[in-house]
Specification:
The complex is a heterodimer of chains A (200) and B (672). Chain A is mainly α. Chain A is 78% helix and 0% strand. Chain A has 6 helices and no strands. Classes of the chains: A mainly alpha (200), B mainly alpha (672).
Amino acid sequence: MSPALITLIVLVVVVFLAVIVIAGMYNRLVTLRNRYKNAFSQIDVQLKRRYDLIPNLVEVAKGYIKHERETLEAVIKARNAAYAAGQQAARSPGEPQAMTALGGAEGQLTGALGRLFAVAEAYPDLKANQNMLALQEELSATENKIAFARQAYNDAVMGYNTQREVFPTTVIASMFNFQAANLFEVEQPAEREAPKVSFT
Amino acid sequence: MATDFFDRQDYARRQTTRLLVMFVLSVVIIILAIYLVVAVALDSSGARARLHSSRPPYGMVEQPIDEQPMARSGPSYWNPQLFLWVTLGTTAVIALGSLYKIAELSAGGETVALMLGGRPINPQTTDLAERRLLNVVEEMALASGVPVPPVFLLEQEPGINAFAAGHQPGDAVVAVSAGCLKYLTREELQGVMGHEFSHILNGDMRLDLRLIGIVNGILVLAIVGYYLLRSAGSFSSSRDSKRDDSGTIVLILGLAMLVLGYLGVFLGNLIKSAINRQREFLADASAVQFTRYPGGITGALKKIGGLSEGSRIRDGHATEVSHMFFGDAFAGSFFNLFATHPPLAERIRALEPDFDGRFPEVQPVAVTADTVADRSRAGRPASLEKLLPAAAAAAMTMDAGNITRQIGRPQTEHLEQAGQMVADMPPALMAAAREPFAAQALIYALLLSRDDEATCARQLQMLEAKVEPPQYQQTQQLAAAVQSLSAAAALPLVDLSIPALKKSSPQQYARFREVVEALVDADHKVDLFEYSLRTVLFSYLDVNFGLKKPPAVRYRTADAVAQPAAVILATLAYVGQSQAEDVQRAFQAGAAGLLKQATLLPSEQCTLAAFDAALAQLAQASPQVKRAIITAVTTCIAADGKITLKEGELLRAVAAVLACPVPPLPAAMVEN
């Protein structure tokens, strides 16, 4: 047995072991990436449900709210913007730009809805409307589900990002271009506007 | 096949053993062949060196001891050291390749489904076709007593195909192609899912994953050979004649590994196909037995034949998992030897002998709302409808042997019953069970004490402190609906919520688990319902979240588990009977077939903690022993001719821990 052959065999085994380790790390990253992408689809379903509810809500409110029409328009506008951002994010979950845009749009929408409910305070008939109550109930239930799904998504993203940043996986991650994923954080709308008092 | 669930589990295990033997044999052959090639190459290069080199032939060899026998006896190819190296090297490469693939797949069915481009179908989907599929799967799972598996959709696949993957029912997933949703009717979907559930119940999936791993090991050998061949190019380009010789040897070694590796893969695929084709017939037959409607599965098979896309799977990974599919993943497989599935016409004829071999033209099927939820009975033999009550009673007699036979082999009646159970479920609870946030709240609501207001108040207080306000509110809302739920529907509801619970993150599951434990423990005692619920819930979810590994087989005889089995039987006897002599009778009835000497333990020793510990031990028994245990357990609880609700729930807990899918007990037999 020539030393060349021994060296070669040792080399082959070492290379092979290295390949296995690298492939293991690569697969782990892929699994974690799939996991957070799947977690986003859970949010997506609930977001869509929410986007579907809002036009109905506005439709009901329209019948009562005579003034402050711009509040209603603002809700619809924010809803449409959030819908577009949601679609963009669903196409590439975790992509920083899309996630930030979605977080911002969702924040706007939440703010607009908050103002709508504040305005609705002034219309006792609207507040007592059964449809309105049911829609509000449904909306808050959906928001709870979104919050829970968002938490699951953020947990999954954290898991992925951590794995991506620890050595030696980080080498593999940069080699195969595993991008960092963004958390889904909704900007809390600053409560700068006090509810307007309506003069009727 | 006149065998039951445990025999088929055993069969699957034996097949695995057979497979391992074949595998070891082929590895030995490969090692010998590689050794032979290298030895010949070394010898001839040595001879060439002697001819061409100006230096003495041994000048280039640093280890003359090695070469001495060769010098003495001319072309003797026996070189122990070389043999050792070849054996070590080859075994290492193959073993690492196999282990790597098995480790990769150990994450369970989900990995396979994602690998093939599957998208998990959301349990709350509003798409009618997806809803219909989920309903079919839910009914099947409830009817066979396994947790509802997550369902994946292979969106990129226009053909008609499906597969089930995972190690055991707890981590199984099923996946269907887009073509399935587009072209199949509800009955045909049921047929296909019946086929897949048969794979889940027969223990075929574990075998499937091992097959993939093993063939991969040999494939890696071929890949290493390929890289050796390529690197040999750079070796031979050097001018040094000594290196040139090494280069030749590497070249030959690489070539040998490449050729033999592919030969091994070829053999591996042959083994794979041979084992697989029989199981497909069995799964087809089981699907018919399941739905008692051959038209379902033959309809689906005919549509595969009629569709130009057939059952083809386009994804590149399909080769690795081809044997797991419902239909052949490669349409144009000319070699029957390699086909992972029997020919379509042959499969159809096995179920429908007068099939003329003509496949219909396939049109997309519109999904209407009534086929989504209702079990449309059109096309079923009308007489069966009338026969059903009687047939159900006959199939579900109190005979314990009968229950054992039905494990892993649900009947049409169970499917009907499961459909009914789902239909009777309050819609609010059903919706909650399908969504992670609400599903957690639903479990909390189920755990709230119903008869003790003080405990209930304490539990609510605890809940308010431990969970976030929205979830607390959700729990309170659901608690109202749970009040009106029949007690027998509680555990099936837990089964239905398992796929949604699997969607929470590990952190969320950890918190959830903590809260459940706290709720169970609120009154400082664990009652039977709480125990059963917790056991059913955690035995599946802990494995899913990697907190627990599925148990390995440790006990192969009934004697080895006599002590824990006595605890289980005694506890069940105490639970179901109130009179001392009835307890004794029930215990003796159960123990008769299982234990050599049966003495009823005093009731103080039959705590739930002891029961739990005993159950954990029994989980490590072999399938045949488990059968004896389940038979003894069912005999014990049925000794008085009726099954109380508590007995039924404990039976579910036992079945969940032993991983024996017990179909739901007939509602009429269960006394509240």
